[in-house]
Amino acid sequence: DTGVSQDPRHKITKRGQNVTFRCDPISEHNRLYWYRQTLGQGPEFLTYFQNEAQLEKSRLLSDRFSAERPKGSFSTLEIQRTEQGDSAMYLCASSPSGGDSYEQYFGPGTRLTVT
Amino acid sequence: AQKVTQAQTEISVVEKEDVTLDCVYETRDTTYYLFWYKQPPSGELVFLIRRNSFDEQNEISGRYSWNFQKSTSSFNFTITASQVVDSAVYFCALTPYGYNKLIFGAGTRLAVHP
């Protein structure tokens, strides 16, 4: 039983470049979430998928950010024209749908540094 | 508005001391869920506990215990006989029923020294 995995674990990029992160949720989980965590803060919600449908996006998700979950399994988060303010840990989480469990299981995160 | 406040930014204790991490939340919803997560230096958030708003019974799991009080909108977490391996950042989180996201506090960094 594997947990949530994320790739890459670290990414250093120059300002203006595009980056893409991948998340593989726990296999039986239908729900997938992306969060961003900056130093000294708690994670902040970015977006949520139920299967392949993106059902909610935070105002934090500017038009430079796009997320997909094409077959309802893995998800990608792309940031275009990166800015220094995008430097953060990007966390992916998954949870089963149905019932009232609501707990989310997190991956190890992708740490992005924009230079 | 939904909000979680963890007023303690950092706590430092010596091994075997008991320590309580405070969490105060705000929500207008009558049905909601509260969580605690642990984030060790490796960075991965580890789920510790979930509580729903209808269940105020305190819970104990080994050295961990949680005190949920709706009257004060608090969900505090106590570690008994702390150990060095407990050193981490601990987050309290809230999600109202039907929400699809966790609302986190800023976290409390716990350092347990030998």
What features would you highlight for this structure?
heterodimer; A: 115 residues; mainly beta; seven-stranded mixed beta sheet; four-stranded antiparallel beta sheet; 11 strands; 0% helix; globular; B: 114 residues; six-stranded mixed beta sheet; 54% strand
Question: Could you explain the architecture of this structure?
Answer:
The complex is a heterodimer of chains A (115) and B (114). Chain A is an all-beta fold and 115 residues long. Chain A has no helices and 11 strands. Chain A has strands spanning 5-7, 10-13, 19-24, 31-37, 44-50, 53-57, 65-68, 75-79, 88-95, 105-106, 110-114. In chain A, a hairpin with a 6-residue loop joins strand 7 (65-68) and strand 8 (75-79). The model of chain A has no long low-confidence stretch (mean pLDDT 93). Chain B is mainly β and 114 residues long. Chain B has strands spanning 3-5, 10-14, 19-21, 24-26, 32-39, 46-52, 59-61, 64-69, 74-79, 88-96, 103-104, 108-113. In chain B, the strands form 3 sheets. In chain B, strands 2, 5, 6, 10, 11 and 12 form a 6-stranded mixed sheet that branches. A 4-stranded antiparallel sheet of chain B has the order 3-9-8-7, with no helix packed on it. A two-stranded antiparallel sheet of chain B has the order 1-4. Chain B is globular and about 45 Å long. Classes of the chains: A mainly beta (115), B mainly beta (114). At the A-B interface, strand 4, strand 5, strand 9 and strand 10 of A face strand 5, strand 6, strand 10 and strand 11 of B.
